[in-house]
DNA sequence: AATAAGTGAGAAAGCGTTTTCTCGGAGGGA
DNA sequence: TCCCTCCGAGAAAACGCTTTCTCACTTATT
């Protein structure tokens, strides 16, 4: 036996004893499963209420083979995008009586599989959010995790639902927006190397280049947060570009701040775009032109896809592959460039 | 019995059979508890590795009476402050092999106790973050939750550690800062009614009033997010004040944006302060003068306090009451007021 | 009136572990 | 050589619940 029996919590046995019935009957009335005599049921309920009995979820989980919990693993909990997904997921899941367990891989690629595995063992399913691992590893891991929902990645072999944003399309539209304003020299300030969404932006921009050979488009390596945007300020200025496509809103904001410090006006001197449309984007000065991804929907849809899998329990292998088109949100950080003087 | 036995996960029994030993022995080598013959141990380990055996955490939890999980309940997961606490907690807990389960009460006061109770039953402890419930209810709930850490609230009766920020002190220092710049007419844009930290600010400002009877200090009712700050713009302008103490950084940012839209310059025409120093605060335009709370420490310290309780298991009733003094962070959103013209 | 069918509650098995208890065998001292 | 002690491994109980199985009892059917 494990624990000392001293002052243990009130269990089903206590209720059974007080009500003068068996454990089984208590369980039945608590779960409303089988028919039980109304009189007895009332007695049990009274006893349960009096003892403030609350079923032990661990015991239930073991017996039922389910935990009513799902896990989510994100690369960086400091990123507002992932925070928003987490929030949407959590709220949607709570509506159906599920809780969410979080795991933050802190951008350590090698930890992802381990964290996901551990989460899966404790939960009824896992949402893998923008995993940085390689395709091969993901393909191998996915079946292991089975009730799995992927965000910003897809698998081919297994039938796992995925939600993704068409970053390639979005970045092209932003670039197009800058061009239509009259910009001819652009810079893409790229994101984390292992980020699939960054790769998608890159292929989108390749496409853009083909369609607009007359536009100069430089690539600058950056990161995914404020600081990396801020640090890129000088390189951006040195590039001589008038239109900047930042990897995301965070990077754009860091850049905005850096430009402001150096007295460079946005959008008069340089136009800046972000990506994601995080809640803060419309409150920056100037408000940020960006590509809005329906971030709140992502979380709740992730839950819906998860629920479908949990409920259908290996029934129909519906492999939903949802792809969201970003919507360009034109604000004040972009404008026609000043007349050239170089 | 619960589940169909078809295609169930590999359990301890499978390993035992493959290694030709008993369940007990497998458990022993997996946990390294008792002495077991090195040869047998090796055989067990080999079998476990070959079958990719991973102990079922639910079974372990039931036997061990612990889940290696803690819960956190927050009023609003959209608030960067709570996000940061969650993140700090999660990372610190992960370092000790613990996971965290989240519950978002969505500012619904009546849900808090229920969520906290459920979380507690599933976890080894609960972190209650800025609960909105009344003092009486909190006092009654706390012992129920026992391994409990309170953030931004305290209890008297029970010995529960609490971490709090001295909001009263911080708001006074901000007000003082505005006064020393020359402001004479201030407004406090208050936060959620049930927020204890808002009440602390109010008592701090009462104190401030006593010490500075010559200063006009109006109170305006607001909320805790962007939008409420934005919506207060006209009321702020109508107040005729030159120095605005916003409830927190979010409110301040909303206000900043509203003022900008109406062509009012910050800090030339109006000075604005925030509270919390969320990561975004130094990237607003102008960068926000605010009171920095050591938000990252809060999360990790919360974990430390939790760990102490879990480990000491009813040993020494160390009731740590940590209080953090905010540090005023002077940036560009505050300056001397323009000469009066009214 | 006797048998069949139905109903509802208790007994017990099972979920997957850990840990106590028990016991056979080996080793050491007398 | 015999007995006692020690050691290590298996048997089984325990954790707290759900659910099948079983069975006594009641009600319907002929």
UniProtKB/TrEMBL annotation, chains A, B:
Keywords: DNA-binding, Transcription, Transcription regulation. CDD domains: HTH_LacI, PBP1_LacI_sugar_binding-like. InterPro entries: HTH_LacI, LacI/GalR-like_sensor, Lambda_DNA-bd_dom_sf, Peripla_BP_I. Coiled coil: none annotated. It holds the Pfam family LacI. It comes from the Bacteria. The keyword Transcription applies. Residues 312-342 are annotated as: Disordered. Residues 10-64 form the HTH lacI-type domain. This is LacI family transcriptional regulator. It comes from Paenarthrobacter histidinolovorans.
